[in-house]
Specification:
The complex is a heterodimer of chains A (about 110) and B (about 120). With about 110 residues, chain A is mainly β. The chains are: A mainly beta (about 110), B mainly beta (about 120). At the A-B interface, β4, β5 and β10 of A face β5, β9 and β10 of B.
Amino acid sequence: DQQVKQNSPSLSVQEGRISILNCDYTNSMFDYFLWYKKYPAEGPTFLISISSIKDKNEDGRFTVFLNKSAKHLSLHIVPSQPGDSAVYFCAAKFRYNFNKFYFGSGTKLNVKP
Amino acid sequence: DTEVTQTPKHLVMGMTNKKSLKCEQHMGHRAMYWYKQKAKKPPELMFVYSYEKLSINESVPSRFSPECPNSSLLNLHLHALQPEDSALYLCASSQDLDRRSTNYGYTFGSGTRLTVV
């Protein structure tokens, strides 16, 4: 059973608007979360991360929010650009298990010009 | 050099063949990983090497055999695979991760698309 879930396989957004990608997890022992972006024919690229001691981390147009009580994190992209069109994966790891990440199945974002 | 290079990009092999996937990085990373990803599924961890020693084997069948000849290279030897092993095989590397780490992000290669016929 997947411990990290991305329930929306796809999302379509107009250029300039906000994209919100969601991720849910089942295990409260996860202590670190990451988002990766993947273009076709390329490997996933690290985008942004957040530790469980924080509830928000921002990097330019990308902000990740963590709601521990709801076991939910989200990635906000503002403003969205056509070049952001890709598959986005969230991933999580357990405390003291440093080399193993659990990935969601991905959300395909399409930003329309 | 901030890349992880995987070869070949595509591989078709028969169930009796022996082949190898190769992965190379020159970022000084001391942890290297093999992941397997099937369509519309998340990447699944197969193996982790830390300082050239196998540290995690996620109960992968013995028809997959990893090898880390040095800190820059990671191989995955394939033998007697099944059609259900067809998938995208991703290699990744990172700084060796421990409780002092502040960034746990991997650098992934672009993958080898494997088809077993």
